[in-house]
Amino acid sequence: MTVREHLLFYARVKGIGPHLEEDMVDKALDNVLLKKFAEFRVRELSGGMKRRLSVAISIVADPKIIYLDEPTTGLDPESRRQLWDILCSLKGSKAIIITTHSMEEADVLCNRIAIVNQGILRCVAPQVRLKSLYGGGYHLEINCVKERYLQMQQKQQKRKQRKAKKKEAQEQAQQQS
Description:
By secondary structure, the protein is mainly α. The chain has seven helices and four strands. Helix 1 crosses helix 2. It is elongated, with a radius of gyration of 26 Å.
């Protein structure tokens, strides 16, 4: 089947009338940048084009909500970026729910992020809030001078000891009250 035939099939499955299906298919092809590949057989498409076709299938009936599961898994960086641009262009007119393991993808595509761990919803918040709560990354210090390294180790041990004493004092204060 060709790209157009796939979209016509799904338009019919989704209940689009015969008088609207061609317009819906053309609009979906335009949205995902597959207009010039409409008559190609799907097996002739690259992986990125196949992903765009799956997005086109999901939007062919102009739904209010779109669900996508790992939409860019396995794509090269250029195809991934192209698909992100397509999804961003759809954001204003539709609710898009995406499952992904890529925080970079979630950061680019989402207004709010929900984190699920072991089947339990742990938190829902805008990415800025999540970054402020859980940190923005790692800090790496490299030192090539042995004496300086030993000084840094001693400072870190002293900090840990002060924290432990402070925590112990807080716990004793709580026990007394």
